[in-house]
Amino acid sequence: MEKKLVLIRHGQSEWNKLNLFTGWKDVDLSEQGKQEAAQAGKAMLEYNVTPEICFTSFLKRAIKTLNIVLDTMNLDYLPVYKSWRLNEKHYGQLQGLNKKETAEKYGDDQVLQWRRVFDCQPPALAEDDERSPLKELRYKDVDKKDLPLTESLKDCIARCMPYFNEVILPEFKNHDTILIAAHGNSLRGIVKNLKNMSEDEIIKFNIPTGIPYLFTFDENLNLKEDRFLGDEETVKKLMESVANQGKK
Predict the structure, then answer these.
(1) Catalytic site residues?
(2) 160 closest CA partner among 126, 184, 129, 131
(3) Which of 36, 124, 141, 201 could form a disulfide with 197 if both were Cys (CB 3.0 to 4.6 A apart)?
C-alpha cells in the first residue's frame, strides 16, 4: 500500500507581505495567505489526496493554514498534533527587520548566508529581549536549554528531525496519508533528508507558500515520487519569488 506525506508551507503572513524576517514571532496570516490555504485544500481535493492525521507548529500562521485546509476539505475532525519543534528557524536579532533593507546594509551574500547557509547563525537575541521565547507562555513546558535565541539551518534541522523521525514517521504504521503544515526552513530540513540533498542544493531550494508538496512512498517508506500539487509554471514563479526576498 502506498504511503503519502504532504508538506504545506503556511500561506503568506502579514510579515511575509512586508518582507520582514519572522522566525518565531507569532504573526497572523494575511488575506492572501488565507486564500492560499483554501486553495491548498482545493488542490488536495482535486488530486484526491486525503490526510488522516496532521501535524503543525506552535505558530498561528501554520496552525491557521492547517485549519483552513481542513475546513476546505471538510476534514475539521482530523487529529492535529502541535510541536514547537516544527517552528520556523529562529532568526535571532533579525526578527522584525526588513529583508531588503538588511541586504542593502549587510550585502546580499551576508543575508543569503544568514537565511540559508547550513551552519551560519544570525546574531543572537539576549535572553531578556522581549522577543525571546524564554518569555513566552507557550514554551513554559520546554526545557530552557532547548529554546533557541538564534539558529542556523543546521540547528533548525537538528531540532525538527528527531520529532519527524520519532513521532511523525511511525504514524505510517496506522495511517496512509500524513499532512504537515509548517514553515519554510523546518520543511526544508524534512525535504533535505527525504531527498538526500546536499547543503548547496538545500540553500537553493525554495518552498512556495500554500502549495501542497506531495511525497509518495512504497510500503517500506522508500521514496517513489515527489511533486507540488499545482501548475508547474505557477509553482516555478512562486519559488523564484521566495528566492528573491532577501535581495537588495
Answers:
(1) 10, 88
(2) 184
(3) 201
Q: What's the CA gap between 78 and 123, in Å, rounded?
A: 39
Q: What is Dmax (Cα atoms) for the chain?
A: 53
Give the Cα separation of 223 and 238 in Å (integer): 25
The helix/strand/coil state of 186 is: helix
Distance, in Å, from the CA atom of 146 to the CA atom of 134, rounded to the nearest integer, reads: 10
Alpha-carbon distance 41 to 9, whole Å? 13
Quick count: other Cβ atoms within 10 Å of Cβ 137? 6
Question: What 3 state SS string does 20-83 have?
Answer: ECCCCCCCCECHHHHHHHHHHHHHHHHCCCCCCEEEECCCHHHHHHHHHHHHHCCCCCCCEEEC
Which grid cell is 172?
505510517
| Residue pLDDT tens, the chain, 248 long | 899 999 999 999 999 889 899 999 999 999 999 999 999 999 999 999 999 999 999 999 999 999 999 999 999 999 999 999 999 999 999 998 998 888 888 888 888 788 767 899 999 999 999 999 999 999 999 999 999 999 999 999 999 999 999 999 999 999 999 999 999 999 999 999 999 999 889 878 889 999 999 999 999 999 999 999 987 777 777 767 665 554 54
Q: How far apart are CA 37 and CA 111, in angstroms?
A: 28
